[in-house]
Amino acid sequence: MIRIVCVIGIVVILCSVSGCAKKQEQSQNTLRSDVAVNVQPVEKLDEAGLKKLITERKGKLLFVNVWATWCAPCVEEFPDLVKLAQHYNGENVEVIAISADFPDEIDSKILPFLKKQQVPFKTYVGQFENQDSFINSLNIKWNGALPATFIYDAEGKQRFFTIGKSNFDRFKNEIEKVRGKT
Amino acid sequence: MLKKITGIFMFLGLLALPLFAGDEPKKAEDFTLEDYNGVKHSLSDYKDSKAIVLMFIATQCPVSNAYNTRMVEFYKDYSKKNVAVIGINSNKQESVEEIKDHSKTHGFEFTVLKDWNNIIADKFEASFTPEIYVLNSKFEVLYHGRIDDSSRENNVKSKDLRAAVDNILAGKPVVVASTKAFGCTIKRVE
């Protein structure tokens, strides 16, 4: 009799442990799908919108990455941007990305990529009449090579600019330098 | 009084000097690179051309590849007008074999040179593909920038490279000497 009770006890314990594990798994799945759902809609951004983003800082530093789904180093760099946004979550640092894909590629290319990367920050797609003036409005020395990254201080003044693939440590270091200056 | 007027003119002249200096076109140095068959080509080989079009291109960049047909057409239209058209590949990860295959696949009749260690890209300060430099026979850079204003051919409104070369062939100043566009960064050696 004692043996039977012990066996039933063990079975109950095993079941409950397994149930907990299942619940935990379900919870993780729910979290993952929540994050995927929370990818923000991609907005079209013209030059006036870009200017507004840069100037209306509300006390926040602005980190801008210009990228495209067709740009291999941009795609390689993107997980570091996600990590950066997570690192500065809740702080006075706003991370945004501007895609140089075509505006009619939001659903076909941009959003699927953002969902795959589980991007928590706001992403725009450039919509402008003239590539020259859009590029020049970010930095006159930039000739359009992607990726390109810009950091603006809380007053909307550009403090950092680089082209080519970079990484979390370098971006964090540059943000901290700007924070020290502001 | 005469001294004062002369002084004012001299002062104005000094002010104008940097402007003229700044407007002078940059001059490219002669260089030699090998094509994908190992044949050496120097910039000076093309000194008798009416214009020299240097195109920094790539095999793997989707933007550069979007222009393959347009580059072929440009070569067909302008090589018969004594315009030299030369492709330069400075990407570290794109091999000579890959460049050869790519050129054949896309029907490039123009020469494509391999710029090992991106030495020529560094000299020109080229940073993306496709990036264009148009020189005259004195190797002065008269145009720098894009081929046209959209990687989607149907959206093109401004054929900037053709316009610049047409200006040069007509013996006129290049109206738009500098343009910009999104492109792939040239992958340089570390």
Give the key terms:
A: 182 residues; alpha/beta; Glutaredoxin; 2 domains; 6 helices; 19% strand; globular; B: 190 residues; alpha+beta; seven-stranded mixed β-sheet; two-stranded antiparallel sheet
Give the total of domains of chain B: 1
CATH class of the largest domain in chain A: Alpha Beta
Number of strands of chain B: 9
Main sheet record of chain A: 6 strands, mixed
Q: Can you list the strand order of the major beta sheet of chain A?
A: 1-4-3-2-6-7
- Major beta-sheet overview of chain B: 7 strands, mixed
Could you name the ranges of chain B where pLDDT drops below 50 across 5 or more consecutive residues? Answer: 5-21
* Mean pLDDT value of chain B: 90
**N-to-C CA distance of chain B:** 63 Å
Order of helices and strands of chain A: HEHEHEHEHEEEH
Name the largest protein-protein interface in this structure: A-B, 21 and 19 residues
One letter per element, helices H and strands E, the order of chain B comes to HEEEHHEHEHEEEHE
What strand line-up does the widest sheet of chain B have? 2-1-5-4-3-7-8
Question: What's the helix and strand layout?
Answer:
The complex is a heterodimer of chains A (182) and B (190).
Chain A: H1 2-37, E1 43-45, H2 47-55, E2 61-67, H3 72-87, E3 93-99, H4 106-117, E4 122-126, H5 131-138, E5 145-146, E6 148-152, E7 158-163, H6 168-181
Parallel strand pairs in A: 1-4, 2-3, 3-4
Antiparallel strand pairs in A: 2-6, 6-7
Chain B: H1 2-23, E1 32-35, E2 40-42, E3 51-56, H2 62-66, H3 68-79, E4 83-89, H4 96-105, E5 111-114, H5 119-124, E6 128-129, E7 131-135, E8 141-145, H6 160-169, E9 183-185
Parallel strand pairs in B: 3-4, 4-5
Antiparallel strand pairs in B: 1-2, 1-5, 3-7, 6-9, 7-8
Short recap of the structure:
The complex is a heterodimer of chains A (182) and B (190). By secondary structure, chain A is an alpha/beta fold. Chain A has 6 helices and 7 strands.
